[in-house]
């Protein structure tokens, strides 16, 4: 693994799918991951049938472990809470 890869920030992101559902994931390259969700075979199974998707939220985490923990936390909140996270009142 190159040092460049090690120093990249990890992101937690929320996508809005074409059916208005929300998908949460992590990545260290959001542009590439969004392309995979919309066009590639490497996108999540959930998003493959709900294209196109758009990124509606992202937050930086210091490493993959922290990003995974935050992803888990977001996946366990209600849709209403996610919408508040995306668009704070």
The helix content is 40-55%
Number of strands: 3
Quickly name the level 1 CATH class: Alpha Beta
Distance between the termini: 41 Å
User: Total domains, how many?
Assistant: 1
**Silhouette:** globular
Radius of gyration: 13 Å
Beta-strand level of the residues, as a percent range?
15-25%
CATH architecture label: 3-Layer(aba) Sandwich
What composes the largest sheet?
Answer: 3 strands, antiparallel
The structure class reads: alpha+beta
List the secondary-structure elements in sequence, H or E. Answer: HEEHHEHH
- Counted by DSSP, the helix tally is 5
Mean pLDDT: 92
**Poorly predicted tracts of residues:** 1-5
Describe the structure concisely.
By secondary structure, this protein is of the alpha+beta class. Helix content is 43%, strand content 24%.
Question: Could you characterize the architecture of this molecule?
Answer:
With 89 residues, the chain is α+β, with helices and mostly antiparallel strands. The chain has a single domain (3-86), classed as GIY-YIG endonuclease. It has helices at 3-6, 30-39, 45-48, 64-75, 79-86; strands spanning 10-16, 22-27, 54-61. It has a three-stranded antiparallel β-sheet, sandwiched between helices. The radius of gyration is 13 Å and the shape is globular. The relative contact order is 0.22. The model is unreliable at 1-5 (pLDDT under 50).
């Amino acid at each position: 693994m190159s040092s460049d890869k090690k120093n990249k920030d990890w992101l937690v992101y929320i996508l809005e799918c074409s059916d208005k559902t929300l998908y949460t994931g992590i990545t260290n390259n959001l542009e590439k991951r969004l392309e995979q969700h919309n066009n590639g075979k490497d996108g999540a199974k959930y998003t493959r049938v709900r294209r196109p998707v758009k990124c509606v939220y992202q937050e930086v985490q210091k490493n993959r472990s922290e990003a995974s923990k935050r992803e888990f936390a977001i996946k366990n909140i209600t849709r209403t809470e996610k919408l508040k996270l995306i668009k704070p009142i």
